[in-house]
């Protein structure tokens, strides 16, 4: 079947629009980052504060993603394998962090653990500093990305039902054996997909982190905060160099996601 | 599971970090655009301190709007010293019990090692012949300064213009308000902060004159070229202090008082003052000020205390909703 001229024109238009609105900005990041040459680009990236921001962002993701994947799997298990009063309410609660603005999450944490907050004074008198440390960044990241894994798993696990697991149990498997050999293989791809989404969100989070970070250079500045800071300091090349590392991570994440999807469908 | 435990241990280790005794690092919580200045100050202070005391130290920096920094410290940001550009923001720390009430007498010159004031930046050759506050109300002059509702910088501009007008019109309020209204109507767009206003004037080429701190005016000339812009010093302006203070609650808890005090003292030393002067801040050390006399023309400065009765009164009379600012800021 041959396409009409109009259809081809529309397809061309879609490519043009996508190119202008999506590809050009991304290309611009790299052209700005590299406009003073490769040596300046690398000098910007290995600047101790930027390097520390990359380290902090990656470390935060390495802590947050496994915790939220485990918690998300447990939650999805609970709400799809058991029927209990308040189940729907619990499902709604899981969605809450995704529905509210991250800045609200940051402010809420400040009011919980800040010096004038609910637990802050008690923690401070015990010598524990939560706000404006990497711990605060990990905590808000956990909160903000809490729903992503469960969101991926709940529809899949509801759809799959419990038959495979019941079969395993009736054949004499214990709980862990059933989980490792039956449940996990069934939900594996969804779990990985959830991890990819969680990771992207942790690394890119700006609003919530900016409230609780304290913006101490080389200590509590994550990559998005560092980009914002360099930009405000008129260091455009440095800002775009830092942005390019975040973009590369995003592209890598997308590639992993596409590969996972292809394998899941194929 | 091991990963989880390791993560938890890591998080705990991070949390326990600041509790270590005998710190060799301090945190300077500072205003938004002070980064280059304090990076340069730190680069000289650190080796000087090590040479004198045999201890290698680190000065960490955190920069944001000074009101935001004050809030963060009240919420627990462990800043040993503050170097702000608003006296009122240190007063908020006093109210919160973080800074001693007599902080302004702990260091010289009301605890303000540097100062500046609102000055003018015009295009090279001064084509519109803008020389003093009177010119800002002319019909043919476009004026750029940020929004006084959001910018401390612009509050100084408003007060400086008002101080000039009060003198010029002998305190006739109708004439003062008429003048200020005309100045505000000459502003095509109100940016939220000082840097935004500089960008609007320099890169978007809006207006004929930018009003901002002299330090920013002179830096803009340095950065953007004397062939494009020139500084104009008005006949009178309003003293803008850059106050510093020890955060007593933090230095006492951390045991970092000596190092923190040494750092603030350094800002008053000849070296510290010279670094500030090189970055276009007026300094109080007379020898250093004399070295940089070419850069800083003479000017008569009035103070918020003498002209307006202090910051508390200013906040109440001028900047509260429905205050004197709102009567002249008709195009907000």
UniProtKB/TrEMBL annotation, chain A:
Q: Which domain of life is it from?
A: Bacteria
Topology of the protein relative to the lipid bilayer? Multi-pass membrane protein
Which PROSITE patterns does this UniProt record tie to the protein?
ABC_TM1
Q: Where does the record say this protein resides?
A: Cell membrane
Segments crossing the lipid bilayer: 12-34, 54-78, 90-114, 126-150, 178-196, 239-260
Q: Name one GO cellular component term.
A: plasma membrane
The residue ranges of the ABC transmembrane type-1 domain are: 54-261
Is Membrane there in the keyword field? yes
Q: Which Pfam families match?
A: BPD_transp_1
* Molecular-function GO term, any one: ABC-type sulfate transporter activity
Q: Which UniProt keywords apply?
A: Membrane, Sulfate transport, Transmembrane, Transmembrane helix, Transport
Q: What does this protein do?
A: Part of the ABC transporter complex CysAWTP (TC 3.A.1.6.1) involved in sulfate/thiosulfate import. Probably responsible for the translocation of the substrate across the membrane.
Quaternary form? The complex is composed of two ATP-binding proteins (CysA), two transmembrane proteins (CysT and CysW) and a solute-binding protein (CysP).
PANTHER family, per the entry: SULFATE TRANSPORT SYSTEM PERMEASE PROTEIN (PTHR30406), SULFATE TRANSPORT SYSTEM PERMEASE PROTEIN CYSW (PTHR30406:SF9)
Name of the protein in question: Sulfate ABC transporter permease subunit CysW
Q: What is the protein's species of origin?
A: Devosia elaeis
TrEMBL record, chain B:
Which N-terminal stretch is annotated as signal sequence? Answer: 1-21
Tell me one GO biological process term. sulfate transmembrane transport
Organism domain of life: Bacteria
* Entry keyword Signal: yes
- Residue ranges annotated as transmembrane are none
* Keywords (A to Z) from UniProt: Periplasm, Signal, Transport
Give any Pfam family that matches: SBP_bac_11
What would you give as a GO molecular function for this chain, any one?
A: molecular carrier activity
One GO CC term on file: periplasmic space
Q: Where in the cell is it found?
A: Periplasm
Alphabetical list of CDD domains matching this protein: PBP2_CysP
Per its UniProt record, what InterPro entries does this chain match? Sulphate/thiosulphate_BS, Thiosulph/SO4-bd
Return the similarity comment. Belongs to the prokaryotic sulfate-binding protein family.
Entries under NCBIfam families matching the protein: 3a0106s03, PRK10752.1, PRK10852.1
Q: What is this protein identified as? A: Thiosulfate transporter subunit
